[in-house]
Amino acid sequence: MIRRWRSVLRTPLGIAATALTVAVLVLAVVAPILWTDDANAVDTGNILAGPSGDHWAGTDNLGRDILFRTLVATRLSVELALAATAIAVVAGLVLGTAGFVLGRRPGRLVSAAINIAVAFPGILLALFFAVVFGVGATGAVLAIGFAGAPAFGRLTQTLVAGIESRDFISAARIAGVGRLRILVRHVLPNISEPLVVNATIGAGGALLSFAGLSFLGLGVQQPRYDWGRLLFDGISSIYVNPASALAPGAAVLIAGLAFNLFGESVAKGLGVGVVGGIPALPPVVPTLVTDEPLIEESHQAGTDLVLDVRDLEVTFPGARGPIRPVRGVSFAVRRGEAVGVVGESGSGKSLTALAVSRLVGEPGRVDASRLDLLGTDLRARDSRAQRQLLGTSLAMVFQDPMTSFNPTRRMGGQLAEVARHHQGLERRSALARAVDRLRSVRISEPERRARQYPHEFSGGMRQRAMIGMGLMGNPALIIADEPTTALDVTVQLQVLDLLQAIREADGVALVLISHDVTVVGEVCDRVLVMYAGRIVEDLPAAALSGEALHPYTRALVAAVPDMDTDLDQPLAVIPGRPVDPADVPPGCAYAARCPLASERCRVEDPALVPAGPGHRVACWHAGEPIDIEIADREEVRVP
Amino acid sequence: MSELRFDDVTVRYGHLTAVDRVSLTVPAGQVVGLVGESGSGKSTLARAAVGLAPVSGGRILLDGRPVPTRGRRRPLQMVFQDPYSSLDPRMSIGESVAEALPPGRSRDERRAEVYRLLELVHLDPGKAAVRPALLSGGQRQRVALARALAGDPQVVIADEITSALDVSIQGAVLNLVRELQRELGLSLLFISHNLAVVRYVASHVAVMRGGVIVEEGPTDRVLADPGHDYTRELLAAVPGSTPSSRPRRTP
Ligand SMILES: Nc1ncnc2c1ncn2[C@@H]1O[C@H](COP(=O)(O)OP(=O)(O)OP(=O)(O)O)[C@@H](O)[C@H]1O
Ligand code: SF4
Ligand SMILES: [Mg+2]
Fold it and tell me: Which end of chain B has fewer surrounding CB within 10 Å, N or C?
């Protein structure tokens, strides 16, 4: 959190705006303490003087120093602006959350009221309130505060609506948590950031409005003075001493700008997500290069390698030193081959895929001794050629296709954009290709569908369209990360069939990431089993049931129910928990959960070594019999 | 032991009838599986039961009385499908679980209970102070499960709770579900698209499509001898159901 706020400070504009805002606030505190006497000193011999050495901005009609008065006025001006903003925020919050607290129907009334209020020009409302509350500082604060409330109400309402639809709100309601409590505990914390940002910007606006009201004579009255009042007084003598109006005017401008820019840069800083403010990573130790003859062989095999990954590591900065969720993964994918990646959640499957497609963002760091896609080294610096290669030769399919599409643009256009961007096709032929690709992923009436928006596609169609998007280029490799997890079985089957067909037709290689061993076993030729950021077994899919050697693989296979699982037995479960990447034990990472673990396992990490044709395994006791009793030993306790 | 009964329930969103006169009973202490494609109304039916969807016809009864949807005591709990949206990103997982505990316990008791629940779902209780952002999808779903159990419910509706889970935890969760059902007499409406999972957990199964239940019966009967075309289609789509492509594993 703090990190995100800190990132605001990393842009030049952010620094400038913050410095300016802090300066204004400091001035507001100290100026009246230091200079009140100077500001009130009447010098009758020096009335309405222009700027001079004694009075840098000249004097007013009582001979008081304009500059000092402007400085001292900072406090009142800022106070009034903040008070008005506070009123606007509080009233806005009440309005904006009324719908949530009161329920559907009263909520609708409130929102209609807000809509009407928002439609009124703010200054008009302010004038109206000024008349109601009377001329003076209090009236002006209330006026500006309430005039700002509808806009805040609308903002709050929108933000609340976004949060309200999330399941955690439903879950809290089901748990019997009251609406007010949900509002305070769940809703407000989740909308606080945009609110704070907008309040800051609002404060800048309030400052300007105040100056406006005071200038019109509707704000602060003599003998108190804020910038607007000074401006009002200064204007009358502008021909005698222009500085008398310019000084307070500049103050309003600078302070208003400071708040505005500060708010804007905070918004920008928070919008970009979790970047920045993290200490630089210590250099990563050179990766251990183990002898992996199988990979070596495939290197010799040469040209038919689509993807060649060696010693891949992904590192993130953590609170207690770098965390490495992927710890030296080596594998190769041949042309037309389907490789499955299975493993528990957190085992590093997705990160491996993201690293290959260069999608691991800051502050993550990817290292590898080799990372070749079609013979091109992906470790090189980001270049146009590389993006081109990734854009056309590699297709990524994610679990949730909805988030991968822009909801406001037509499907056809989004697909076409890929071709225009990477292949330089012009609009019409790109669109034609998009329609063709939609057809190739078996979307019926592709011409009509291309004109539809993502939400008009069903989940399965979106997923197919996503695959179609990947096919806009001529991919040699499709990486699909849990492509069917969000889909129905029948649709899942269609998507898997489609991937299979593409593979067979075009010789496209497939890396299918899934936690479902059944799916992977059915679709793939070869399966990589990942555990704690390592590949622990690499085996032909046909060998999964029965010939798997690693105790983890065997447990994984036994843990999935299928249509002939014995209903009287508990499912095999893997005792214990997955390894926390922040805390990887020495020796074999699986030792704590492994029924075969021996002393050696706890100290020495087994390397991935060949164990028969097309089979690699990392285990000191590979293939040794496991007492089924032990595999089932974890009793699930009941409260 | 409690019985959950949907009696001729209809749920409409505007002109769309999401659930169309569905009658379904989850007998006390039993597990009923509900399968069907997305958009068939499974989740809507579940949400109606906990008061999150408007019931425009029929009744939902717990032991013959309307399901309480107000007050702190909620004997009907639900676990949601999407672990990314079902936990408040601003709250530690321990707080999320604690929030669902029935009121009236000391601070220490609550903490101990949260620890026990986290342990129950195979999460490190030491992580209770962690925010969900640091957990993977599978870990989040375990938290959601712990939260539902925290309310000490009589009936739980599990909406696709294993579809986002790892196989290893899925097995443990399914075992847990069966244990709870047997020993606590928990009644469960288990919504899933995975027939193998439903077969393992549920004694009864209902197949839903287009807002109506097209087939219903004892699980073994429905799976062995499906009476509706759609059930047959579902069965054919189960991965590994084509014997040629996948060798049977030996136990
Ligand atoms: N941006 C990040 N910063 C810090 N840690 C991260 C980041 N992204 C992922 N991790 C950690 O890396 C580990 C591996 O994550 P990854 O997403 O690859 O797992 P996965 O095998 O795909 O799991 P799942 O089956 O749940 O999708 C996890 O422990 C995760 O918490
Ligand atoms: S190396 Fe030892 S602890 Fe690791 S999987 Fe093999 S037997 Fe188990
Ligand atoms: Mg993943």
Answer: C
